[in-house]
Amino acid sequence: MPLQKLVFPPGVFRDQTRFAADGRWFDCDKIRFRSGVPQKIGGWQRYSEDTTDGQIRFLFNFISLDANNYLAIGSSQRFYIEEGGDFNNITPLRKTSSLGSNPITTGSAGSGEITVTDSSHGAVVNDFVTLASATTTDGVTAAQINTTHQITEVVNTNSYKVVTAGSASSGSTAGGGGSVTAAYEINVGLNSTVIGTGFGAGTYGRGTWGSAASTGPANELRLWYGDNFGEDLIFNVRDGGVYYWDASSGTSTRADALSDESGASDAPTVATQVMVSNNDRHVIAFGCNDRGSSTQDKLLIRWSDQENAVDWTPTTSNTAGDLRLNSGSQIVRAYDTRQEVLVWTEEALFSLRFVGPPFTFGHNVLSRNVSLIGPNAVASFDGGVYWMGLRDFFVYTGRVQGLPSTVRDYVFGDINLQQAYKIHAGTIKDYGEVIWFYCSADASEIDRYVIYNTFEQCWYFGTLSRTAWLDSSSRNHPIGSNSSDFKIYNHEKGLNDGEGTSPTGISAYVESGDFEIGEGDRFQFISRIIPDISFYGSTDPAPAASLLLKPRNFSGSAYGTSDTSTVTGTKMVDVQEFTDQAFVRVRSRQVSLRVESSGTNIAWKLGVPRIDIRPDGRK
User: Fold this and answer.
1) What is the pTM assigned to this prediction?
2) CB under 8 Å to 208, separation ≥6 — which residues?
3) pLDDT digits (tens, 9 = 90+) for 576-587
4) Which of 142, 245, 374, 489 has the highest count of CB atoms within 10 angstroms of its CB?
């Protein structure tokens, strides 16, 4: 027989058996499809050596009037503004207390632990508190006390413990003087969803329909949302406080509660999400407290006066106002698009549009019985809004449509729904990719991703831990945060894995389904393979990849083995830039092709390899 080209359509077809995926790709990791063929993805390098306290869950880029490029970073414990690689803590303060006389008690002798007494302190373990104006106590110096500490133990509602860098002489000594103050940052959140709290937990309909809800942000996975108002930043803890950071005050200044800003009138103090609408410049709070109330109403939407972030009191001379959705029990997510704001509840998708005076905003239902698996599982690209539902993928381009997927069963058959809050979507616009990061069934942290390529209209997946993601936009590269070291990485930069102390190779592969001669009723013999791989872009002087032919007798057989010794073992061919052909001896009913590499400084793109194949031997 003549040489046979191995040509497979782009994308991975995983929702079927390997034999049913004949002539298609079946498995992959860290590859993408471009111009119809697979290639290895780009590498990643550290953006900054700074780290955060707690897992990063939010990244947002904005630029000030004096051209400072800021990155807002929200973690489970703190909120930062990054500038020039430095992470500046701007976490708002919850309260500042005067502690009374001698509120510091040292721990056991030789210990740096101290107990701080403060009536109704409201702190939880891992909260940050800054002590000031204390005097030296039992050998623990004033400088060692008067700094920021992380609370290690809450003794009761009136006292807690921290560990200083000092060492008590005798222990159990009270001191500190009569002028000690304690400034508390807002309560920290959780790194993981606790079963029984959070989105999707509990039974639907708990409580009376339309009743307001009060959710403590310390009981849920900590998520942040934010948007720039000019050069300033408005942000909030999901189902928590709403805050304002003034860029003109500099990165050494903390954010304040929006309701404490000068001129603030009826500003929300709690919200599921805040944003600034692109077209009309209103600040919008979703799932917030009503005017004159501190209780959160999770279906209430309020907005400020146009071009005024602090005036939320409706009058005849401004455009502030509110409305309440009438389907569902809570707003899950709002997402701003060119023409409208999309708003998901747990049972419907709404469109919120600017309609002008006297109502300012109007809303209508786009679709009912449509789900969003987690608040951050939505992203937009090129006029389409894409999201992951509880069992399917969807796209909105003026109407809601299901997004057919060749990897649906693979993704939803191995996913940890208890950590749906962690699922987040992003884009890599240079390649037309919409990407979802999620936890596999046995994982409690992000370990996988799945991609829909809008250019190629195909799907593929892989393994990678990224807890937050931001496309390049006004930056040179997409960025993502890593779960193991709390650092941020530039992606599509270089060719290697830059997470360790020195770059390592990226293990990338793509593997086909089984192919055969005719209907698979006869054996085939492959004697030669003619590779077709480009290594353009590699910086290794001798880049190489491997081609594997994986034979087997029947669909249920293991590759490379047979009880009748009629199937040859798996054959691997190392391919370099100028490898013209390789001679092999592969005999079986069906064969799978695998292309892989794991070396450093390697880029590759598969073309159209050919094999010399002919019928052989018994049926």
Assistant:
1) 0.93
2) none
3) 888 999 898 888
4) 374
